[in-house]
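ARCHIVE CARD
SHELF: 3
SLOT: left
DATA:
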Amino acid sequence: MSFNISNQIPSSRRKRRQHLFSRDIEQLLFSLGDGPYSSEQTVNALEDTLTLYLTSLCHAALKHARAQGRNRIKIDDLPFALRNDPYKLSRLEYIINQSQRIEKAKKIFDNNVVSHLQTFNEEDDDDQLEGNGGKSQQNPKPRRKKRKQVPDVKQAEHSDDDDDNDGDNSA
């Protein structure tokens, strides 16, 4: 994918930009060995390049979507826009594949948790009916564990001091 220099953002619009990626770019630069505070010019230059790249990528995807008769971009339009860059295309396909696997795992997990909870609720209902002579109990109170009482160290020291004095206040 090539950049068209003639399609760059005019300088008047460049002054009003929102700095969408500044913090992320600074963190990325730091992770790659830059100092804790990156030069503002470096961050701005990288942000301009990233913004131009994403804009041209979205325009290419939109062009493909319009050729398909749609006005909105779908995730399926991005591989067409990246078809000339095999590394980025393979990375995009990997990310899409992983996203689908995660969604599938979430659905399986949610179904298992719901069915697992239902079986526990049915078992609890059966236990309640058996334990109450056939009467179901509404909102049973949870049983609390009894705390072990630990003697307070300060009180124990004071009581020992009182025993040593045997009521004598003389020193």
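SLOT: right
DATA:
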Amino acid sequence: MTTDILTDYLITQSPKACLRKRLERGDYIYKPGDDAPYVYLLEKGVVKIGSLGPLGERVVYDVLRPGEVFGDLDYLDEVEFFEFAQAATSLSIVVVQLSFFRHIIIHDPVVAEWFNETIVRRWYKAEMRLLHRAHETVENRLYRLKEQHIQVVKDADGLAHQVLQLLSHQEIADLVGATRQTVSKKLRRMPV
């Protein structure tokens, strides 16, 4: 099931629990500490996911593209949700009440299969990034990040974006596990 079909399906199943929303570049969907009992389905645009470091600095640890799901699923009761989600482009998202989402992924096998596939794909992406961080040079990690985000993504206005051009050198450094200075130096030497 594609995200477009899924979002339309969810909205028809419970229009009161689902809301299609548009955000502009730089808008926060949620910030650390917000009470946001929702799940978000990204239809169009790019979202930066991250948290705050020990000194309060922003650390980006994922970049999401259309078709991905994010938010506090509240399955780890003893863990405080301390993440931010920020629009890197204009966005179209569907905001789903967490209680409805948890109900439907248990009772609707098609939605459950979509959710499982989406979560496993996200885990795989995170595991590969960790594996590369442990065993590859910064240059190779940058090449892999570039390969991962080579496809153009359209935002809510229909404008096309190269994902890496939406990120600062610090955000790229966060994603590959290096310093901003090292990433800046390596990117200057990389072919375009």
